[in-house]
Amino acid sequence: MAPLPIRLLRGIPPTFQWPVKFAFYNALAAWILSLVTGNVSQVDRVWTFLPTIYTAYFALLPLWPNKPHGFFWPYVPETAHPDLVANYSPRALLMFGLVFIWMCRLSYNTWRRGLFNLSDEDYRWAIVRQKVPTWLFQLFNLVFIAFIQNIILFLLGVPTQLAAVQQPSELGTSDYILATLALVDIAAEFVSDNQQYSFQTYKRTGVHEQNEWPGARIRWTPADAKRGFLTRGLWAWSRHPNFFCEQSFWVIINLFPLLAPESPRLQSLPVSSITPIWPLLPSIILCGLFFSSTRFTESISLSKYPEGYRAYQQRVSMFVPFLTPVWGLLLKIQGKKEKVDRLVYGQDVVEEKKIQ
Prior knowledge:
mainly alpha; globular; single chain; 16 helices; about 65% helix
């Protein structure tokens, strides 16, 4: 009789067998390392790479052997459909290219912030530790930090598997439109990262960087630094433009196979059933994670800057920038806009931020 792990893998569709094995052992390694080092940010350090690895696996199915050359070596079992191992999907390759660009941007931002440092740990985990008993935090570490986060990163590669199964002979109109939107999204996220890094550098040192990246050439003021949090540039329109772009990017990736003319397509949703939305689960789950983690992050900011950050929440949308003018209009109707603007943008920049 075959060992239990092998028997379990045999019940998984062929093209998912290696990714599921890889995700499981990554989660297990992250958990063990967190126990050994006392640092639970092990998944954070590989967050930039894992979605790209899964996407590359699905996009390059014809490249892999039918048997592994090593324990973690990618392979496609012989039971996989012959077309999947014989033909590359141009749509899946395009998605891989976009995810690779996404990885380069995120890896660079992670590196310059020093988050690849093995001793670095997300400051939010330390706060969670203080709020819950040790046994509960360790359970949370095992279930959510190590395993659920790895499952989410695996799911981000699933849209590329759908694109590989579709086997289109050429790219369609929707592919070109979505690719353009994805590149614009990555560029906007890069700008928001640059603005945040530039502001935090000025806040910490009081010095403007001489060679700023595009989008970050903002003359920060002592009033900005005193406020403590960023409210200019893209951050005047969204409290978390980087998070908004991150979620948007994966929604776009999710839509590639769903808006394509080939099956499986995004079906119409009957009122009586939620079954047709299953292909959207990767992006829905990621958005849920971002919403809950952002709420927690904002609770920390609110405790540090109670008056200013509460005004920021009233004035600027959490994610969607198009809602910010609506919040401004509502505050104007209530007669609170001038006071809130003064708290959010500061006396020296209030005129520059006329967002109605």
